[in-house]
Design brief:
alpha+beta; 3 strands; single chain; 2 helices
Length: 70
Amino acid sequence: MPQYMTVGHLLRQLQDLDPTLPIRLAVNPDWPFTHYLAAEVVVRDGKAFIADDGQEGYLPPSVSDALVWS
């Protein structure tokens, strides 16, 4: 996995998933919460931005383990 994700890398990882599967953003291993992603993608200055749309709750320990955050 590259350090800097591109649209192509993200599309390849998502292409075989159920399109109705909710997506959450895991943020900060020292404060492990999940966050909603905003529905809009903004492209500026050669980058695509997806905004945080609020906090959902604690990140499940199994996800922390998979991300090697524990």
